[in-house]
Every structure is written in C-alpha cells, then in structure tokens.
Amino acid sequence: MDDVPGLALAYAHSPVSERLENGRAAAFPSCVTVDLGALASNIRWIKARVGGDVSLMAVLKANAYGHGAAAVARAALQNGADLLAVANMAEALELREAHIGAPILMLSYVPAEAIPTAFEHDLSMTIFDEACAARCVLATGNTGLMLKVHVKVDTGMGRLGVLPQAMHALCHQLQDAPGIRLEGVYTHFATADDDPAYMREQLKTFDRVQSELRSAGFRFKYIHAANSAALLNGGDSRFNVVRPGVLLYGLEPMPQSGFARQIRPVMAWKTQIAQVKTLPPDSPVGYGNAYRTRGWETIAVAPVGYADGLRRSPYTWREVLIHGRRAPLVGRVSMEKITINVSQIPGAAVGDEVVLMGRQGDDCISADEIAAWIHSNNYEVVTSIAPRVPRTYINC
After folding, report:
1. How far apart are CA 150 and CA 103, in angstroms?
2. SS3 track for 112-168
3. Residue 288: phi, psi to the nearest 5?
4. 145 CB contacts (<8 Å, ≥6 apart)?
5. How far from chain centre, in Å, is Cα 111?
6. Distances in Å between the alpha carbon of 293 and those of 281, 282, 286, 306, 331?
7. Nearest one of 7, 10, 9, 81 to 39, comparing CA atoms
8. Is the separation of the CB atoms in 212 and 151 below 8 Å?
9. pLDDT per position in the chain (396 positions), as tens?
C-alpha cells in the first residue's frame, strides 16, 4: 500500500476539519495540546544518537501514548522514523485508514479471524508461540498472499514470547510455510530502566539465540530489542532497529537519567476556572465533606475530573498552575469537577487558564511529578487522559 500523506494532511488542514476540531475543542472544557514540533525534535535527537545505520520503529501503542496515533505517525515518519509499532489490529487499521502506508508491526495478540486482514493491509504480525505460528500458517493457506512476521523471543520478561529452546523448530515451521515471510526477530527487556545487569543477561540470551539461528541459515531483515531506556544505555542492544516509545514523547524512560534536558515534553493538559467563591471557616467542599476550610478560603472550581483521566483515588494530582503559581487541589475529585484553593492567587477569575500538566510562566508540572503524586509512572499519566478530551496539534 502506498503512503498518501498528502490526502490525510490536506483533510487535516482543511477549513471543514479545522472548524470541526476547533469547535469541539472550544466546546469541551479541557484540552490536550500536542506539540508536534517537540516530537520532531525528539525523533531527530534519537536518530542522531543511534546513528544512520539503525532504523527507528516509533511505538504508537495506546493512541500514541495518548497523543493521537495518526498525527504522531505522520510527524514521526516526516522526521526520520522508518517503521511503526502498535499493540493490536484495531490500532494498525486506524493508521491504514488515515492513509499511512509505512511498515507497521503489531506487537501483541491478533485473533485468528483477524489474521487475513493483516496481509490484506500489509501489516506485520508478532509470532510468540507454536499455536500462534500455526494460526498464521493456516490463515495464509493457498491464498497466494504473503504474511510478514516477526518472532518474539522471551529472554526473561515472562510475557508473550517463544522460549529460547523452541526458537529453532518454530522458525523452521515458519520458513517452510509458503505464505509466511520471516521478516524479523526481537525481544523485550524487563528492567532496562532500573536493573542494567538483568538487561545484560537478557541480551546475552538474545545474542545466543540469534547466533544459533544464523548458524542454521536463518536471516532476518529486522533485529530489534532496544526500547527507550535500552537505547540510551548503550549500543549493544540497538542491532539494526530501535523501538522507542516514551522517549518520543519527551518523557524520561529512567528516573533521574539526565536525558530530560535533551528531549522536550510533547503533551500539555489544560482547563479553565468555571467558578470562584469565598467560603467561611469550616465549610465543607466536595463529596463526603472530605475537606473543610481552615479559615476564609477562596475556592475555584474547574470542569475536569476522573471521567477525563484525572485520577480520583487513592492518590491524585496535588497541585495545578494558575497565573504561573501553584495552587492545591482540595476535596475529592469528582467525575468532571475539581476544587482548588486559590486563596494565595489574587485575581483568579472565571475563564483563567488552569494547567494540569505542562508549563505556565516560569513553572512546570511534569508527567514525572504527577507520576510521583499518584504512585505510578509517566506512561500511565499520559495514556490515562480520556479520548473524549480533544487533542489540539501545534507546531505541525
């Protein structure tokens, strides 16, 4: 399938689509801003770091980590990405429907009835055990069509993957099938972000498996292992393809890695003040009267809540930015409202911007800071923002 970015880009920037998108963004009380210029800068930085001989497979799982898969795919391909990776068939078809014709690898399970769709749309599948291989061989049958596959080796992650001792027989099974093209081999690291020693053990296993397969005459177009953290840790795991995900989006793959200065956050999340009121001491605020004012307090209400992805419990956002200053959330997060103590922010008024994540003035609330508040990681912060929140793209 040929890539037709012009058609998609023409629609994306057409007056009709702009009115629809701008109207939706204006009608919705919060908005995610996606800086495609920052994304492009991050991709170029990664490409420069890994070198021109290594291809970049941009990982777009979960709607490109919440950023919007089609828009991110176009920007990634225009700035140096060579291949794309998604979790499943639905995500892959979304990209094809957006006229994106670049190679796409599905990293996870594909139901048997959906396998014919893979070769109809020129999608590459992951083979992770003998049963999966058998389903693919059966689906291709005598159709005369070719299904491209990557075999995933379980080198110590303990999730999807062929055990090392079964690789030789499985690759023979695939090579002998007339409708299968054995395109790639890969593995995934369990601890690249926090335990390099274990990662090196996985890498040794992967190297051994590759050596045995080469000796048996197998050749692969694509060999990949390095996720965001691994590609930063050194060159041994890069092979001829790297597979960055979170790093594309300007998020730290490892705590305190020092690389945050080299990459730029791509996402910001903002809403606005809907009401401001001053309450006397000991006034209840929110469900369950979980918070009571300590004195005379000025409370701002913002129209965003857990239905939008702002977690309710057991931990949630601690602060937001208003007028470039931090203001604490008080009371419980509601389905689509939060309450904020703005007593220390004179002049806070209806319509003022509230930054949930991102920069305002000289301060910034990062996904990493939010992750610490909610006892999670930056991946969950960005992927949990609900699809109903409009994505607005800047610096295209």
Report:
1. 12
2. HHHHHHHHHCCCEEEECCHHHHHHHHHHHCCCCCCEEEEEEECCCCCCCCECHHHHH
3. 70, 5
4. 119, 120, 179
5. 23
6. 5, 5, 11, 23, 10
7. 81
8. no
9. 444 333 344 434 444 444 555 566 678 999 999 999 999 999 999 999 999 999 999 999 999 999 999 999 999 999 999 999 999 999 999 999 999 999 999 999 999 999 999 989 999 999 999 999 999 999 988 778 899 999 999 999 999 999 999 999 999 999 999 999 999 999 999 999 989 999 999 999 999 999 999 999 999 999 999 999 999 987 799 999 999 999 999 998 987 666 667 899 999 999 999 999 999 999 999 999 999 999 999 999 999 999 999 999 899 999 999 999 999 999 999 999 999 999 999 999 999 999 999 999 999 999 999 999 999 999 999 999 999 999 999 997
E-assigned strand segments in the chain: 31-35, 55-59, 83-86, 104-106, 124-127, 147-153, 180-187, 222-224, 241-242, 267-272, 275-279, 284-285, 291-292, 297-302, 319-322, 325-330, 338-341, 353-360, 363-365, 391-394
Distance of alpha carbon 18 from alpha carbon 390, whole angstroms: 13
Residue type, 14: S
Task: Indicate the pTM of the whole model.
Answer: 0.91
Tally of residues, the chain: 396
Residues acting as catalytic residues: 61, 287
